[in-house]
């Protein structure tokens, strides 16, 4: 691996001159600077992050701030992380995972120490304690999520309100007049993570406009809790039951609970869940799903923050983008009556 000494020899300059070109600490003639840059390119020399930061006041690192809630489905979360990381590389940036243990103080730390050029915040709560600090930082901050007050913030997310509405309208069109939602796990609901409230708002609003009933039941990874929710939902339902399960962690538990009661999805009951296309197709009865577009949200998030970094103005920035959601019909839902 070439060093700054190799660059100096190739350019015919002192090693300190290479350092000055990289750091910008001293004025260097245009001719000398170009010789050093040509040697860097020829040798494919990679200056360390500190040198690059000094040279352009940039680290080319974006902090990804994620609260690791034990009850969250990690595969779903890592789908965001992997796409964000790979997209960032396309823009010549790296990703630094920042856990939320430090709360708002952690944001000040990584920005104050010039560890990151910008921040992406995930699992945003309706009243998130990080937001007052985020609004004051002198680097771009992007939220994957929509807080109750998004003013002065750059936000992007799937349109969860649209998703809730789509699920209810789809099941109502299939003839269901009572629709049961098995909610996200209590640890997520109790944190008032923004997407939960938006999904429920869309579902409840659609039910009211269509004249159908939507009932809410607790979710979770506990088999007994899901079984109890299923029993209560069935007892309160006239006609063919229908379930919406937006939390990926409960799909298998819900399916097994229904099977234990002699109910087959797509025949005796309708289910709209959330799963990757591959996992949805692998279910004993392929699962109809609401696609919350995690990959598209992740790609757009990186594109937006990199555009802000390239613009190189300190803000304030404010925008809100909602990515439309899509229902994919498979075999777990009854289809609307012919001609309806």
Q: What would you say this structure looks like, in words?
A:
By secondary structure, the protein is α/β, with parallel strands linked by helices. The chain has two domains: 61-159 and 295-325, Response regulator (Rossmann fold); 160-292, 3-Layer(aba) Sandwich (Rossmann fold). 45% of the residues lie in helices and 16% in strands. It contains 14 helices and twelve strands. The chain has helices at 4-11, 15-23, 30-43, 49-56, 74-90, 104-112, 131-134, 160-173, 186-190, 194-210, 223-235, 251-260, 277-282, 294-311; strands spanning 61-66, 94-99, 118-121, 141-144, 154-158, 178-182, 213-217, 242-244, 270-273, 288-291, 319-323, 326-328. The strands form two sheets. A six-stranded parallel β-sheet has the order 2-1-3-4-5-11, sandwiched between helices. Strands 7-6-8-9-10-12 form a six-stranded mixed β-sheet, with helices on both faces. The longest helix is centred in the last third of the chain and has 18 residues, at 294-311. The radius of gyration is 25 Å and the shape is elongated. It starts with a helix and ends in a 12-residue tail after the last strand. The mean pLDDT is 89. InterPro entries: HTH_LacI, LacI/GalR-like_sensor, Lambda_DNA-bd_dom_sf, Peripla_BP_I. One of its GO terms (molecular function) is transcription cis-regulatory region binding. Keywords: DNA-binding, Transcription, Transcription regulation. Residues 2-56 form the HTH lacI-type domain. It holds the Pfam family Peripla_BP_3.
């Amino acid at each position: 691996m070439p060093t700054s000494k190799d660059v100096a020899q190739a350019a015919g300059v002192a090693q300190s001159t290479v350092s000055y070109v990289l750091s910008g600490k001293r004025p260097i003639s245009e001719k000398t600077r170009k010789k050093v840059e040509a040697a860097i390119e020829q040798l494919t020399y990679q200056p360390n992050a500190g040198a690059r930061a000094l040279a352009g006041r940039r680290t080319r690192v974006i902090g990804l701030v994620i609260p690791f809630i034990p009850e969250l489905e990690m595969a779903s979360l890592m789908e965001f992380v992997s796409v964000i990381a790979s997209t960032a590389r396309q823009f010549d940036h790296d990703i630094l995972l920042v856990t939320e243990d430090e709360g708002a103080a952690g944001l000040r730390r990584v920005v104050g120490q010039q560890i990151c050029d910008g921040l992406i915040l995930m699992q945003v709560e309706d009243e998130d304690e990080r937001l007052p600090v985020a609004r004051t930082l002198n680097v771009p901050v992007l939220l994957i999520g929509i807080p109750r007050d998004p003013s002065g913030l750059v936000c992007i997310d799937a349109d969860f309100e649209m998703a809730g509405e789509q699920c209810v309208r789809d099941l109502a069109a299939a003839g269901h007049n009572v629709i049961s939602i098995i909610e996200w796990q209590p640890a997520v609901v109790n944190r008032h993570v923004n997407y939960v409230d938006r999904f429920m708002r869309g579902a409840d609003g659609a039910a009211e406009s269509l004249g159908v009933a939507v009932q809410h039941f607790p979710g979770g990874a506990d088999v007994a809790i899901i079984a109890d929710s299923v029993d209560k939902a069935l007892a309160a339902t006239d006609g063919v039951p229908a379930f919406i399960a937006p939390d990926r962690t409960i799909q298998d538990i819900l399916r097994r609970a229904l099977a234990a009661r002699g109910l087959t999805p797509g025949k005796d009951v309708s289910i709209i869940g959330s799963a990757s296309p591959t996992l949805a197709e692998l279910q004993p009865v392929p699962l109809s799903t609401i696609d919350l577009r995690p990959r598209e949200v992740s790609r757009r998030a990186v594109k937006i923050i990199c555009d802000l970094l390239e613009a190189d103005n300190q803000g304030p920035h404010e925008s809100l983008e909602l990515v439309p959601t899509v229902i994919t019909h498979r075999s777990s839902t009854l289809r609307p009556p012919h001609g309806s």
